[in-house]
Amino acid sequence: MITAERRKKDISWCITQNPIQIKIKQANKTIVDGHLAKANSDKTLTVRIFPQKTYDSSITVSSNTIGTSYQNTAYGMLADSEADLNISSKDSIEFDCMYGHMKIKNVYPQIINGEICGYDCGLEKVM
User: Fold this and answer.
1) What is the per-residue pLDDT across 75-111, written as a single tens digit (0 to 9) for each?
2) Which are the contacts of 127, defined by CB distance < 8 A and separation ≥ 6?
3) Which of 14, 25, 45, 105 has the highest CB neighbour number within 10 Å of its CB?
4) CATH number of 4-125, picked from 2.10.70, 3.30.720, 2.60.40, 2.40.10
5) CB within 8 Å of 65: residues ≥ 6 apart
6) Of 7-16, 29-38, 46-55, 59-68, where does mean pLDDT reach its minimum?
7) Helix, strand, coil share of the chain (percent; to 5)
């Protein structure tokens, strides 16, 4: 059976094989006096970004009255246990990197024996 310390070492080793330093912009919304107040915070992380799918089959085009946007969900991200990544319907995390402007769509904590060892994230590239 794998221990939490071993899993943390494995995640750290994987990140060091192709590290990218990013500055995330996290927008948190909290209820204050009956309305949602937006609070922004910035944090610098060292992560690993990798392709998940083929590029051609993962582009989504959304068109509305304002304009047309293109989303590509072909990327994933691995972060260590110190990243403390949380997203919800009220919170969002975005950043710029060498691949373009990214938004974290989902976060899957890697948990062993009740201890968070790292985060596996699904990214959306917004073009």
Assistant:
1) 899 999 999 888 777 778 889 998 889 989 889 999 9
2) 69, 70, 71, 72, 100, 101
3) 45
4) 2.40.10
5) none
6) 59-68
7) 15, 60, 20
Q: Are 72 and 127 in contact (CB under 8 A)?
A: yes
Q: How many residues does the chain have?
A: 127
Q: Are 47 and 20 in contact (CB under 8 A)?
A: yes
Q: How far is CA 101 from the centre of its chain?
A: 12
Cα 46 to Cα 13, 31, 35, 54, 65: the distances in Å are: 12, 31, 34, 25, 38
Which has more pLDDT, 9 or 31? 9
CA distance 124 to 127: 9
Q: Are 91 and 54 in contact (CB under 8 A)?
A: no
